[in-house]
Design goal:
The structure holds three protein chains of three kinds. By secondary structure, chain A is mainly alpha-helical. Chain A has one domain. In chain B, the strands form two sheets. Chain B has a two-stranded antiparallel ribbon. In chain B, strands 4-5 form a two-stranded antiparallel sheet. Chain B is an all-alpha fold. Chain B has a domain of 271 residues. Chain C has one domain. Chain C contains 13 helices and one strand. Classes of the chains: A mainly alpha, B mainly alpha, C mainly alpha. Chains B and C meet through α15, α16, α17, α18 and α23 of B and β1, α4, α5, α6 and α11 of C.
C-alpha cells in the first residue's frame, strides 16, 4: 500500500479518540465529518488506476459524509437546543481508556487474520476495528440521541475502512448501496429524534423507558 | 559456623519472652530481661549472616527428627542471607522501640504475651528461611503465622481487633493449606521432602504448573498480592505499631521468599508465568496505592502501601522469570537484584514509617489523619523520621527506594532491546506503570505528611502531643541512617545482591554480567551526594540572604483571609478527592451525607470512606453463601457431649474395620 | 579541553536563558492581545528585585516551608545538567539518567506541595492536591515517550536517545516520533502550568494550580521558586527542541545558535497556544493528559507491532 496511507489512518484513529473524549456535540460532529472526508480521500491512495468510477466514488463520499450529513445533524442540534452531552454511562476518561484497550486488541487481532500479502503490514484492519469499536462504545454508552447517531456514523466509517481492502473486488453497486444505507439510516434517526424531542421536550434517550406498557 | 550462630540466635529469640512470663506483671523488669534477650538473639543472628558473607562458606547442619520424612536440616545461602537480615534487624529495633511504646506498666494484661509472641515470630521466620526440608519449612511457617495471629489480636478486648484476627486466621490457614498441597506435589515430583531444584527430565509439565499455581496462591496470600490481600489492611491497622512494622516489613516478605525459592526450583518456566507475575505486580502496585490514597486511617494507609511495594517486588521477580525463560542474564540480574534490594528497602522504610506512626499514635491517641495536624512543631524529630520514610517510599533520590526502582526500570527498558518484537516489548509497558505507581505514591505521601505533621492541629489530642522518648527515637534514627546509606552507597550492597541472584540462578554464578556493570551504581552515589550538597548549599545561601534582609512573622496570608482556623485547612479526604474520583470505578468510595436538609439546617455530619472492595464484594459474600450452603451440617453440631463421644467411637470402629 | 568548553557553555546557557523564555512567552501573549507588554528581560529584573526584598513567614510554617523553594530550585538545576542541549552531550550522562531526571522533578514536586500544605491554608492545599494529581497522569506519558526513544536508539542514555541518530529515525519512523512530540508538548504545558492546564496570570484560587501553591512565599524564597520554574520550563523545552530538531550541523558555532533559536521558537509556540486557547474545565484536564498518554502509547505500539 502507498506510504501515505498509514499517516492518514493514524489521523483517522486519532479522530476516534477525539469523538470519545470531547463533550461538545458540535466538536464530535466536526470530528466525524473530518474523518468522513479523510475516508473519502483514501481510495485515491489505494487504487493504482484512477478511473471515472473511483473519482465519482470519492466525490460522492466526501460530499455525503463530509457536508450533507453533518449539515443535517447540526440542523437537528439547533432544533433541539442542546450543546453538550450529559454524564454518559461510562465517563469520558473511561471511554477514552476503553477505546484505547479496544484499539490495542484490534491491533493484536489483526495479526491473527489471514490477510492478503499487501495488507498484512498496513494499519487498515486495526484502524477499521478501532473505529467500529469506538462507534459501538458511543452507541451504547451515550445518552443523547444525536450522540448515538454519531456512533452509528462511526460504525459505518469503520466498515467503509474495512471495505477499502476489498475495493478492487467489490462492484460499484455495493459501494453505492453502502452509502445509501448510511443516508437512510441517518434520515430515519433524524425523524425519530424530532419525535422524541416533540414528545418529551428533550433528546435524552432515558425518557424512552417511559413508553413501556 | 554461620548456621550455628543463626540457630543460636533463633533459640534465644524464641525463648526471649519466657522469663517475662515468670516475672511480675506490673513491673518493668520482665520487659528489660526480654528485650535484652531478644536483642542478643537478633545480634547473634545478624552475626551469623555477616560471617556467611565474610567467609562465603555454607556448612549445612543436619539433625535427625522423629517425624516421618522430616529432618532438621538447615543451611544458609545467598538468598536466605538476604532475607535473614530484615528478620533480625527489624526484630531488634522493634524490641527496643517496645520499651517506650508498649511499656509493661501501661499494658499489664497483654505486654508479656506480646513480647513472647514477638520472639517466637522472629524465630519462626528465621527458621523457615534457612530450612532445607519441607516439613521444617512448614513448622517454621506455622510458628510464624500463629504468633502473628496472637500479635494481631494483642488488644483483643476490642471487637474490631477480634474480627480482624479471624479474617487473618482464615487467610493464613488457606495459605497453609495451599502449602500442604504444594509440598505434597513437590514430594511426588522429587521423591523426598528435601527442598531443592527439580530434575527437568522427570518433571511432568502438569506437575510444574500445579507447583507454580499453588505457590502463587499460597505464598501470594501471605505476601498480600492483589486480589489475595484481604487480610492485610485491617491486620496491620489493628496491631500495635511495632508489630505492624514487623509484619509489614518482614512477614509479608516471607511469602515473597517462598515464591522466589519455588520458582528457583522450576527448571524451564514458560514465558507466560513471568508475564503473569509481571501483570499481577502491576495490578497490586497500582491498585494498592489507589486504595491507599482513599484511606484516612494512618496505619491502614501504610498497610495498603505495603501491597503496592509487594507489587513492585513481584514485578521484579516476574521480569527475572521472563529472563530465565528467554535466557537473558541481564534481565534476571536487574529484575531479581532490584526485587531483592526492594525487599530490604521496603523493610527499612516501612518499619520506619510504622514506628513513626506509632510515635504519633502514642502521643496523640488517635489513628485518624483528619484529627491530627501540626505535629511537626511538637514532635520535630519524629516528623523528620517520617519525612525520610516518606521520601524513601516514593522512590525519590537520594534515598534507597530510588536505587531499587532504578534497577527495575533498567531491567524493564532492557526488554525493548534486541528482544523478540511483540511479546517482550509488551513487558516494557510495565515501566510507565511503575512511573504511575511512583507518582501516585508521591501524591499519597504528600497528603499524609501534610495532613499529619504540617499545618495546624485539628483536635485537642494533636495539640497536646509530646515528643517520643529516646527508646523510640533510637530505632527510627538507625533506620534513617540505613536508608541514607543504601541510597548513597549502593555499591556496598551489590555483591550481596549478586550472591542472592546466583543462589536463584546458579548458572550465573561465575559466568554472566555483574550487577555493578549493568547498572551505573557509582553514578547514583555521586548524583546523590551532589544533590545533598547542593541542597545544603542552597539552604545556607537562603539562610544568609534572609539574615541580611528583613524577616517578619505573621499569620498565613492565603489570599487575604484574616483569621484562618484549623478547620479551614485541606483535609486528607479533600486532598485525595480528585484521585479517588478517577479511580472510583475500582475504589467504590462510600459517603454518608445528610439528605433533604431544611432551609436552616441543624448540626449534621458527613462521612466518607473507601472500604476494601475485594473483601466486601467478593470474599465476605462468598463466605456468607458458604455458610448458608452448609447450614444443613448444623444438625450434627448440637453441643451434646454424649453424641460427640459417640462420633469418636464410630470413627474408631471405622478405622479398625478399614485396616 | 573540548568537553570543558562544551560543559561551560551548557551551564551558562542553562542558567542564563530560562528567564528570557518566560519573558518571551509574556511578550507573545501581549502582542496577540494587541498590547505592548513588558520587556522580554522583565523576569531578570523581577529576580533581582526579589532577592533584595524582605520576607514574611507565617507562624504556622516549619522548616519544610523554607526548604521547599531550595529543593525545587536545586532539583531543577541538576536536571538541566542531565539533558543534552545543542551538541547532544550533557555534563552528567549515564545509563538510565532519564529515570533520575523524572524522579528529581518528582522530588521537587514533593517538597513544593509539602511547603504548600505547611501553611495550613485551604488555597495552597487545593493547589497542591491538583498539582500532584495531574503529575500522576503526566509521568506515564513521559515514560511512554522514553520507551519510543529507547527502542529507536537502542540506548538508555539521554545523550544517545536524543542524539544525532534521531535525524535518520525521523524518516523511517516519523509517525511515532510525531506522536511523541505532540505528547511531550502537552506534558510541557501541563508540568509548567500553562494554559490549557493552568492560567499563570490569574489570581482566582479556583483556577490556579502552581500559582496558588506559592501564595505565601515572599522575597528571596519566592525568587528561588520563580527561577526554579523557569529552569523546569527550560528542561522540558530542551527535550522538545532536541526531539524536533535533532540534527547537528557539525560545528559548535552552528549548533548552539540553532538550539537557542529552537528554544525561542518553542517559547513563542507556548505563547501562541496560551493566546488562542482557553483554560480547560478542571474535570476535563485529566482527559487531555490521558490523551497525551495514549499518543505516546500509540507511538510505541506502532514501533513494536
Amino acid at each position: 500500500m502507498n506510504q501515505l496511507l498509514d499517516p492518514l489512518l493514524i489521523v483517522a484513529l486519532a479522530l476516534n479518540f477525539v469523538t470519545l473524549g470531547v463533550s461538545r456535540i458540535r466538536g464530535v460532529i466536526n470530528a466525524v465529518a473530518l474523518q468522513g472526508i479523510l475516508l473519502g480521500i483514501l481510495p485515491l491512495f489505494v487504487h493504482q488506476d484512477l478511473g471515472f468510477r473511483v473519482i465519482l466514488l470519492v466525490g460522492v463520499t466526501i460530499g455525503l459524509k463530509g457536508f450533507v450529513i453533518p449539515r443535517f445533524l447540526v440542523h437537528a442540534l439547533r432544533e433541539a437546543t442542546i450543546q453538550e452531552e450529559v454524564k454518559p454511562l461510562v465517563n469520558f476518561m473511561g471511554s477514552l481508556l476503553l477505546g484505547a484497550v479496544g484499539t490495542g486488541l484490534g491491533i493484536v487481532f489483526s495479526y491473527t487474520l489471514p490477510l492478503a500479502e499487501q495488507h498484512t503490514n498496513s494499519l487498515v484492519v486495526p484502524a477499521s476495528l478501532s473505529t467500529v469499536w469506538a462507534g459501538f462504545l458511543m452507541l451504547t454508552t451515550r445518552k443523547r440521541a444525536i450522540m448515538q447517531v454519531l456512533g452509528y456514523l462511526l460504525l459505518e466509517n469503520g466498515i467503509f475502512m474495512f471495505g477499502l481492502l476489498l475495493l478492487e473486488a467489490t462492484p460499484f453497486l455495493v459501494e453505492i448501496g453502502i452509502l445509501l444505507d448510511l443516508f437512510t439510516g441517518v434520515f430515519v434517526m433524524g425523524i425519530i429524534i424530532h419525535h422524541i424531542n416533540r414528545e418529551f421536550g428533550s433528546t435524552s434517550t432515558e425518557h424512552l423507558t417511559e413508553l413501556k406498557g | 559456623m554461620s548456621e550455628s550462630l543463626v540457630l543460636l540466635g533463633i533459640i534465644i529469640a524464641a525463648s526471649s519472652g519466657v522469663p517475662g512470663l515468670l516475672l511480675r506483671r506490673t513491673s518493668m523488669s520482665g520487659q528489660w530481661v526480654t528485650t535484652f534477650l531478644a536483642v542478643l538473639g537478633a545480634a547473634l543472628g545478624l552475626g551469623g549472616v555477616v560471617w556467611f558473607w565474610a567467609t562465603g562458606e555454607s556448612h549445612p547442619i543436619v539433625l535427625q527428627w522423629s517425624l516421618p520424612g522430616a529432618e532438621f536440616s538447615v543451611a544458609i545461602d545467598g538468598l536466605s542471607a538476604i532475607f535473614l537480615v530484615p528478620v533480625f534487624l527489624i526484630s531488634l529495633l522493634g524490641n527496643i522501640y517496645g520499651l517506650g511504646y508498649w511499656k509493661q506498666t501501661e499494658h499489664p494484661q497483654n505486654g508479656r504475651k506480646l513480647r513472647l509472641f514477638y520472639g517466637t515470630m522472629t524465630a519462626g521466620m528465621a527458621l523457615l528461611v534457612i530450612a532445607q526440608n519441607s516439613i521444617l519449612f512448614l513448622f517454621g511457617w506455622e510458628i510464624m503465622a500463629l504468633s502473628a495471629f496472637f500479635l494481631v489480636t494483642t488488644e483483643d478486648n476490642e471487637k474490631e481487633v477480634r474480627e480482624t484476627g479471624w479474617i487473618y486466621l482464615v487467610a493464613t490457614h488457606v495459605a497453609t493449606l495451599c502449602l500442604f498441597a504444594l509440598f505434597a506435589v513437590l514430594h511426588a515430583a522429587n521423591g523426598s521432602f528435601t527442598l531443592g531444584p527439580l530434575n527437568p527430565e522427570t518433571l511432568r509439565p502438569g506437575a510444574a504448573t500445579a507447583i507454580f499455581v499453588l505457590a502463587l496462591v499460597g505464598f501470594g496470600i501471605k505476601a498480600g498480592i492483589m486480589p489475595l490481600h484481604v487480610w492485610l489492611p485491617s491486620a496491620h491497622a489493628m496491631a500495635p505499631s511495632h508489630v505492624s512494622a514487623m509484619m509489614s516489613g518482614v512477614l509479608i516478605k516471607m511469602g515473597i521468599y517462598g515464591l522466589v525459592r519455588i520458582t528457583s526450583f522450576l527448571p524451564h518456566p514458560p514465558r507466560e508465568w513471568g508475564i503473569l507475575l509481571l501483570g499481577l505486580g502491576v495490578a497490586s502496585g497500582v491498585l494498592g496505592v489507589a486504595f491507599a490514597i482513599g484511606q484516612h486511617d494512618l496505619k491502614r494507609l501504610l498497610a495498603y502501601h505495603s501491597i503496592e511495594n509487594i507489587g513492585i517486588i513481584v514485578m521484579g521477580l516476574g521480569l527475572a522469570l521472563i529472563g530465565r525463560s528467554l535466557d537473558r542474564a541481564d534481565w534476571i540480574i536487574l529484575g531479581l537484584g532490584g526485587a531483592l534490594l526492594h525487599i530490604w528497602n521496603h523493610a527499612l522504610f516501612k518499619a520506619l514509617l510504622f514506628l513513626s506512626a506509632g510515635s504519633v499514635i502514642h502521643a496523640a491517641h488517635t489513628r485518624e489523619i483528619d484529627r491530627l495536624g501540626g505535629l511537626a512543631k511538637v514532635m520535630p524529630r519524629t516528623s523528620l523520621c517520617f519525612l525520610v520514610g516518606a521520601v524513601a517510599i516514593c522512590g525519590l533520590p537520594p534515598l534507597n527506594g530510588f536505587v531499587s526502582e532504578f534497577l527495575i526500570y533498567l531491567g524493564l527498558f532492557g526488554t525493548l532491546m534486541n528482544g523478540e518484537r511483540r511479546s517482550f516489548a509488551g513487558s516494557s509497558f510495565a515501566a510507565p506503570a511503575l512511573a504511575l505507581i511512583g507518582a501516585l505514591a508521591v501524591a499519597c505521601f504528600v497528603k499524609v505528611y501534610g495532613a499529619v505533621f504540617l499545618g495546624t492541629a485539628r483536635s485537642e489530642h494533636a495539640r497536646h502531643a509530646h515528643e517520643s522518648p529516646p527508646s523510640m527515637l533510637g530505632p527510627m534514627g538507625v533506620l534513617v541512617a540505613c536508608c541514607f546509606l543504601i541510597g548513597l552507597a549502593p555499591l556496598l550492597i551489590a555483591p550481596i545482591l549478586q550472591e542472592g541472584v546466583s543462589a536463584w540462578a546458579p548458572n550465573l554464578k561465575d559466568a554472566g554480567p555483574r550487577l555493578a556493570t549493568l547498572a551505573p551504581l557509582e553514578w547514583i552515589t555521586s548524583m546523590g551526594l551532589l544533590l545533598n550538597l547542593a541542597v545544603l548549599l542552597g539552604g545556607v545561601v537562603l539562610w544568609m540572604r534572609l539574615g541580611r534582609g528583613v524577616v517578619e512573622e505573621g499569620v498565613t496570608w492565603g489570599c487575604g483571609y484574616v483569621a484562618p482556623t484549623p478547620r479551614m485547612q485541606y483535609t486528607s479526604s479533600s486532598f485525595a478527592q480528585m484521585l479517588v474520583g478517577m479511580f472510583g470505578w475500582v475504589l467504590r468510595p462510600r459517603t454518608h451525607q445528610p439528605k433533604d436538609l431544611p432551609l436552616f439546617p441543624p448540626e449534621t455530619y458527613f462521612h466518607s470512606e473507601v472500604p476494601d472492595v475485594v473483601l466486601d464484594v467478593v470474599v465476605l459474600p462468598t463466605f456468607r453463601f458458604g455458610a448458608w450452603l452448609f447450614s444443613w451440617g448444623r444438625v450434627f453440631q448440637h453441643g451434646n457431649i454424649q453424641t460427640y463421644l459417640l462420633y469418636i467411637f464410630l470413627a474408631l470402629i471405622a478405622l479398625l474395620l478399614w485396616r | 579541553m573540548e568537553t570543558i568548553f562544551h560543559d561551560a557553555v551548557h551551564v551558562l546557557l542553562a542558567l542564563g536563558l530560562p528567564p528570557l523564555l518566560l519573558g518571551l512567552i509574556a511578550k507573545t501573549k501581549a502582542l496577540f492581545a494587541g498590547r505592548v507588554g513588558p520587556s522580554v528581560l522583565q523576569p531578570y529584573y523581577d529576580l533581582i528585585k526579589l532577592v533584595q526584598k524582605g520576607s514574611v513567614f507565617s507562624t504556622t510554617t516549619t522548616w519544610v516551608f523554607r526548604a521547599g523553594p531550595v529543593v525545587a530550585l536545586v532539583t531543577a538545576g541538576i536536571a538541566v545538567l542531565l539533558i543534552p542541549l545543542a551538541d547532544a552531550t550533557a555534563p552528567l550522562s549515564f545509563t538510565g539518567d532519564f529515570v533520575l531526571l523524572a524522579y528529581l522533578l518528582g522530588l521537587g514536586r514533593f517538597f513544593t506541595a509539602s511547603a504548600a500544605l505547611d501553611t495550613g491554608s485551604p488555597f495552597e492545599g487545593m493547589g497542591a492536591a491538583r498539582e500532584v494529581t495531574f503529575a500522576c497522569l503526566a509521568e506515564p506519558a513521559f515514560f511512554l515517550g522514553m520507551l519510543v526513544l529507547a527502542k529507536l536508539s537502542g540506548s538508555l542514555q539521554l545523550a544517545d536517545m536524543l542524539g544525532s541518530s534521531l535525524a535518520s529515525h525521523w524518516s523511517a519512523d516519523g509517525e511515532s516520533l510525531v506522536l511523541v512530540l505532540l505528547s511531550w508538548f502537552i506534558i510541557l504545558l501541563a508540568e509548567n502550568s500553562r494554559i490549557p492546564f493552568d492560567d499563570p496570570n490569574t489570581h482566582l484560587e479556583l483556577t490556579m494550580i502552581h500559582e496558588v501553591m506559592v501564595l505565601d512565599h515572599s522575597g528571596p524564597a519566592y525568587g528561588m521558586i520563580l527561577y526554579g520554574a523557569a529552569l523546569k520550563l527550560f528542561v522540558f523545552g530542551a527535550l522538545v527542541v532536541r526531539l524536533a530538531f535533532p540534527m547537528t550541523g557539525g560545528s559548535p558555532w552552528l549548533d548552539w545558535p540553532i538550539f537557542v533559536g529552537g528554544m525561542l521558537v518553542v517559547a513563542v509556540a507556548i505563547g501562541v497556544v496560551e493566546s488562542i486557547m482557553a483554560r480547560l474545565r478542571l474535570t476535563h484536564v485529566p482527559i487531555l493528559l490521558v490523551a497525551a498518554c495514549l499518543l505516546s502509547g500509540f507511538g510505541i505500539i506502532l514501533l513494536v507491532r
